[in-house]
Design goal:
about 250 residues, mainly alpha, Endonuclease Iii, domain 2, Endonuclease III, domain 1, 2 domains, two-stranded antiparallel ribbon, about 5% strand, disordered C terminus
Length: about 250
């Protein structure tokens, strides 16, 4: 469960550390992420949703629910179905094999979803990426939306990259070093900042006119930070710290 005291701390930190994020938080309002309690179901839905439309994914999920019957989307239940049976709900051969592999690994304990919350972020990622079709991005989404980890930054997420480009005055989508440099002040609440980045996209879609952000603020802040930090430092994603390039 995400504690409200931690969320308040996160919002205060982000507002103080990053003037652009302060403007974003003021525009979006409260942090309202609700955790996904069905860990296995979340992973199944993530596999289904890969590279297809929302409506198509919903249709396949509904048919899979029908196939699963009253026992629902549980690992023990799905292991009884063959890949061909899983394909009958509209899954591609590849995705059907991914769902089967996930169910098998959860059922045999290779992926222990009951105890996974006790692991560090990187160990969670290592465990989940043993499953075919689950990569680092999906594992990071699981960390944020199922485990409620507060300091996860999916730097290659397209929505996050679009939000950073638009809010920080970049001409193009940020590459990894640029995204990590901009996100460095968000630590140790990068997940909260990531959620706010996603919400800016929703806000822009709803508004008939572009959302107004402080003029020149984003570019000046980004330019200053890039000059000071990126020229002499590199962000180590695994260690979660900024280290000197000549540190070895």
């Amino acid at each position: 469960m995400l504690k409200q005291t931690e969320i308040r701390k996160a919002r205060r930190h982000l507002r103080a550390a990053d003037p652009v994020m302060r403007a974003v938080i003021d525009a979006i309002g409260p942090f309202t992420l609700r955790l996904e309690r069905d860990r296995f179901g979340m992973l199944v839905r993530s596999i289904i949703s890969q590279q297809i439309s929302t409506s198509a994914a919903r249709s396949i999920r509904n048919r899979l629910q029908e196939l699963a019957g009253p026992e629902g989307l549980k690992a023990a239940n799905l292991t009884q179905f063959t890949v061909d049976q899983l394909r009958s709900v509209g899954l591609s051969p590849q995705k059907a094999s991914y769902v089967a592999d996930l169910a098998s690994k959860v059922e045999e304990g290779t992926v222990d979803l009951r105890q996974i919350g006790r692991l560090s972020d990187e160990r969670v990622i290592d465990q989940l990426t043993q499953v075919k079709g689950i990569g680092r991005w999906t594992a990071q989404m699981f960390l944020i939306s199922s485990l409620g980890r507060l300091d996860v930054f999916p730097h290659d997420d397209l929505g996050v990259r679009v939000a950073i480009r638009d809010r920080y005055g970049l001409a193009d989508l940020p590459d990894k070093p640029t995204a990590l440099a901009i996100a460095a002040p968000w630590r140790p609440y990068a997940s909260v900042a990531t959620w706010y980045c996603w919400r800016t996209l929703d806000l822009d879609r709803k508004n008939t006119e572009p959302t107004m952000w402080p003029k020149d603020l984003s570019f000046k802040m980004f330019q200053k930070f890039l000059t000071i930090q990126v020229s002499s430092m590199v962000f180590d994603m695994g260690k979660g710290i900024i280290v000197k390039e000549d540190a070895g």
